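=== Structure Prediction Worksheet ===
Name of assembly: unnamed complex
Input type: mixed (protein and possibly other molecules)
Chain count: three
Listed entries:
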Amino acid sequence: LKTPLKQTATSQLVLTERQPDCQPLTTPPKLKETPPADPWTPTSNLKMLISAASPEIRSREQRRQLSDSSNEVLQTKHCSQEDLLGDEYEKSQPSRKEKSLGLLCHKFLARYPDYPSPSQKSYICLDEVTEELHVERRRIYDIVNVLESLHMVSRLARNRYVWHGRHNLPQTLQALKKVGEENKYIQQIQMIKKREYEHEFDPDSERNEEMASSFGSSDQSEMSFVELPGVEFHAASVNGRKYKSLRVMSQKFVMLFLVSTPQIVSLEVAAKILIGEDQLEDLDKSKFKTKIRRLYDIANVLSSLKLIKKVHVTEERGRKPAFKWTGPEVLPNTQDTKLEATSTTSSPPVSESIPSKEQCSKALFPSKGKQNFTRHSSLIKLVKSIENDRRKIQSAPTSPVKISASTYQSLPVFPNTIAQFPAITKHQLEGQSKAAEEMQMKCALSSPEAVPKPEPSQQPGLSQPLGVCPASHSSMSPVILPHPQSGVSYAICLHPSQAHTVTTYSPGFMLQPLPCANLTGIKSNNSKVLNKITTEERDTQKGPDEPTKSLAAEERPETKSETSSQRCLKRSQALPENNLIKRHKSDEESLDSSLTFFPSGYLIPLTHCTHGNKAECSNKEKAGVCSLQHTTYSSPITGVVPMPASELKTVNIPAFHITPLNIMVSPNSIAAAPVLSNSCLNSSSTSSAPNPSSSALNFMLQHIGLLPAGVQVAANPVLQHVPVSSQSENISHSSGSTNVQEGKVIEFTFYSSINESIFLFSLQPSAPKEPQEPQTVTENFFRTPGGPNTEPSLSANSDGTQRTSQEALYIPQRKLEVSED
DNA sequence: ACGTCCCGCCAGGGG
DNA sequence: CCCCTGGCGGGACGT
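=== Predicted Assembly ===
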């Protein structure tokens, strides 16, 4: 033992003198005394050591120490307490948690401003930090390393770092996302998932890993640290060697989030990917374990940064730890921000290797800038208002903003907002609307009363393919609400305004709802079959947590004026069938018709087909298509690719043609059909069962009144044999589940005997409530049709051709829940 | 029993 | 050569 000596020395002295029988070292059990955030005393180490002793000794020690040490009131207090209740004492001792890296990180971060004034750089002296925080140096390295990976700090020299705060975060994330895309993490994730399933099926086949591993190895980006222009890695020396593991790992970890559509990454998957990348998958158990351990470290600090949070993914196999991205939305921005990736290996700079979506976008929209906004009037307003703010901010006398490298044009003040706005254009145009969606949500937040009401005006957007319903499709997010009593989980799609976090989910089974149908209370009552879903969990709110703070304030009310979803609505409203809703209503016992509701979402399992991924876009000539096809909404985890917004406006499906109804179904889902049946057969339980999608869809349509009761549609040709006659065959029941609180939310559910899932639909009152963190989220899991032939080869495709191939064909198979901790 | 992850040994390498 | 860095994994703690 060397390093620790200097600190330990004194304590050891004290310790020994009082406690000869002290044992060597194991993880020192808790120590005494509540650790006030800051008031660490020089004796803290001593305390630690003491704590190693038995409780009695410890307490005795405590008392003694108390008497002679003029330490602090806290201790005194402590002791007195302890005199009374020995147990209580135990509790007050810092538990393991209180020494967690996460907490430490918090302390660390508390020392520096999130957005330090660019003028005055704050430096970090490890020695100081170490001392003040009373931690081993080693721990600080962990923190600093991941901060470094995010360019929140950069190393100057030994023992010395500069604090950048979150200024660079947007750029960093952007860069990471880009690299992540280039690394084809999506595919890798899918691959891993798939392998998992295959294992389930025949556990014997251990060796067919090579496939994946080979593909993994083909990945040329090994150990590269993504840098930003302004924040080069100093100490080239350090940079040059292997001492980057944690940093790189951290970056990659983040990349996984940014690239995934449900921005959830399980540790397991992350670890596998991180391992698989360098080593060709030597399924080394210990290595895996170690990786996981590291990931926990990283995750802890990322959590402290509020970039991610822990959740649990529950699937049939059990509960797996995972993390969910809670950081800022990342925009595939094109800003001329060039990133460079320095690599330790022989890999070339990643940045220029692949002309990605960026180029595609550029090609598509050569005139980057506001013009892009012209497509969406609401966006224009938004932009203007933002720009306004921006100007104000910049011209503010107090903020002579001047960023060193000048590489970053983004405003230091409200990076989030600003960062988002360029995104909107592209995102939207690319069929991604997350940003916009988020905006919407924020708006809703800032002014809850102002409810986006459907208003029948004419739709300019109709003529414009991309502008029509940008956000709507993604606005439906499935959430699973575990039902305490029944043990069943319910899937629910929430309106974005209801659940911010879920909005990023792009359900594999998606159906374009009528976003803002103005319904009057709808309720069904066969509640016997279905348990009523209580959404009590909603109240486990995160409260004033994240989004509210700076965001709401900056948002402009105008934005909400015309949401794309409303437009969609208009279309749908124009349809005669629409009043079927009312008919339906009469069928069911009406309830509380005074309230105005709009469907918050539907959840319908539709099969989807993954089409070309970003990676496939690598070819320049495909640029245009590429951006349209961008699969931002694809779920790497599930392998599902919801349709891009560009496809939303029309429904042109052979077997399922309901265009006028504004039901949006990805054309791709049809392509999936053939294979679908295949996988159906392969799959265990659902083998001969008809595809739930169509029946579910039918049900839904009818239920909602989009489809005449008698009519049935088949979601896909292959499944047409599905008993159309009575939906009850597959969809056993629907029921109205009452809504709990304040009767403001009406939910109804239906049960699909096919996949044994219960879907819950809810109609939310117009006035959006405070967005709630969903407890759980469902997501379909898809399995590829087994067989080596159908095995999607993720590696190939060098030609950059669009591959709307089998790899996309999955079958909804299982449920996955993500739950908060 | 398992998920988390603290703790600190010790190898590398910079100064 | 000292000591900063940081990979790494045992095993403690929490549930």
